[in-house]
Specification:
This protein is mainly α and about 120 residues long. Helices cover about 75% and strands about 0% of the residues. The chain is elongated, with a radius of gyration of 16 Å.
């Protein structure tokens, strides 16, 4: 049951969209650059590296474009899990994936807190 205060409803704020899109934009660049590293350093098959790296970069951009709706935040969270999973191909991506996940979570909560404080 939802009360009059909007419990259970995920409200998207302009700050969340800006910060979330910034995180996903930076992440798109990093995961795209994962491709040459995976090929040259980790000796991952070229087809796999390009599919994973460029595919994940495109998903970052698509998720950033969806941030006006709550479903965009679900898509962005899935991107974070996939970024961590790329660590199975290039171990450094475990670390970078966790960093971007922390930035993603921080972007959502900080923006909500700041915008909530300014509404008072």
């Amino acid at each position: 049951m939802s009360s009059a205060h909007g419990e259970g409803k995920f409200e998207v704020t302009p700050g969340m969209r800006r910060l979330g899109a910034s995180v996903l934009g930076m992440e798109a660049i990093v995961v795209a650059l994962f491709t040459p590293v995976a090929i040259a350093v980790a000796h991952v098959d070229t087809t796999v590296a390009v599919t994973v790296g460029i595919g994940l970069a495109i998903l970052c951009v698509l998720a950033a474009g969806m941030l006006k709706r709550p479903s965009g935040y679900i898509a962005g969270s899935v991107v974070q899990l996939l970024a961590i999973a790329t660590g199975f191909l290039v171990p450094t991506m475990f670390f970078l994936g966790v960093i971007f996940t922390a930035l993603w979570i921080t972007a959502i909560f900080v923006a909500r807190r700041v915008e909530g404080a300014t509404k008072r």
